[in-house]
Amino acid sequence: MDDASSQSRPSADQPNPFSAVPIEITISVGKARPLIRDLLKLGKDAVLPLDKRVDDAVELYVGERLIARGELEELEGDQQGQLAVRLTEVADLQDGLG
């Protein structure tokens, strides 16, 4: 049986050609909701409060889709000072993250 759709799917021994394509993930640490009059007054050294606390989870998005949650941490060793995210919850990409 010659099924074109099954021929286009990668098999277990044939890697998906898209697996090496980089994708951008946006990490959301929170949102700010200032009044416009307050926003217009912002300048250097202004502090803009967010709706999250330092120890709250951050959210990882691909486009508009939430794919995971995690905790911010600092890398050590040669990459000391570099921010990273330790994943604490990962979405089932079929059903999303609840």
Automatic annotation (TrEMBL):
Segments passing through the bilayer: none
A cellular-component GO term for this protein: bacterial-type flagellum basal body
InterPro entries xrefs: FliN-like_C, FliN_T3SS_HrcQb, SpoA-like_sf
Keyword Heme belongs to the record: no
Protein name: Flagellar motor switch protein
Pfam families documented for this protein: FliMN_C
Naturally occurring in which organism (per UniProt): Roseovarius aestuarii
Domain Flagellar motor switch protein FliN-like C-terminal intervals: 19-91
GO molecular function per UniProt: cytoskeletal motor activity
Family: Belongs to the FliN/MopA/SpaO family.
GO biological process, alphabetically ordered: bacterial-type flagellum-dependent cell motility; chemotaxis
Keywords: Cell projection, Cilium, Flagellum
